[in-house]
Amino acid sequence: MNKTSLGGLLLVALLGCNAQKPPVAESTTAPAPVAAPAGQAEAAPAADFPLVLQASGTEPFWGVRVDGAALDYTTPETQDAPRHFEGTRELRDGLLVVHGGQGDDAFKLTLERAECSDGMSDMSHPFTAEFVLGKDTWKGCARDPAVATERP
């Protein structure tokens, strides 16, 4: 191989190294929180919502264990065989929303950081909960099961 051919190969190799790379996606980190207008609550950051949560309500008694975007729904009659749902977990306007399914299996669990009492015990929970399954809606409280429940 002569010097001209070798020089040409090196030039091609160097140009290949400097070829344009595909555009890189924007950062996936969450933007800094924006202050809420006066008189409105600030939106809660995603860190305010643990990955695993336990929501429940009374009259009628119900429970939902949240693990990421998966839910296990129980009633006193279904403690041994909870209904399992897989969905999408999103933070919307400071609320945690886990939703999915269609028709009678459509579900949406909405959690908000706000002190909550279940009305039957003296326990205080850090989140309010609303669970919609098909056409039914239940309201209650939620907490991180790894953290001891606070008593007033």
Would you mind describing this structure in some detail?
It is a single chain. This protein has one helix at 3-17; strands at residues 52-57, 62-67, 70-74, 83-86, 88-92, 95-100, 107-117, 124-133, 136-143. 10% of the residues lie in helices and 40% in strands. The chain has a 9-stranded antiparallel beta sheet with strand order 4-3-2-1-9-8-7-6-5, with no helix packed on it. β8 (124-133) and β9 form a beta hairpin. The longest helix has 15 residues, at 3-17. The protein is built from 1 helix and 9 strands, in the order αβββββββββ. The termini are far apart. It is mainly beta. Residues 3-44 have low confidence and may be disordered.
Instruction: Count helical runs.
Output: 1
Radius of gyration: 25 Å
**Overall pLDDT score:** 76
- Work out the number of β strands: 9
Intertermini distance = 86 Å
User: What about the largest sheet?
Assistant: 9 strands, antiparallel
Percent of sequence in beta strands: 35-45%
The share of residues in helices is: under 10%
> Order of strands across the widest beta sheet?
4-3-2-1-9-8-7-6-5
Question: Could you list the spans in which at least 5 consecutive residues all have pLDDT below 50?
Answer: 3-44
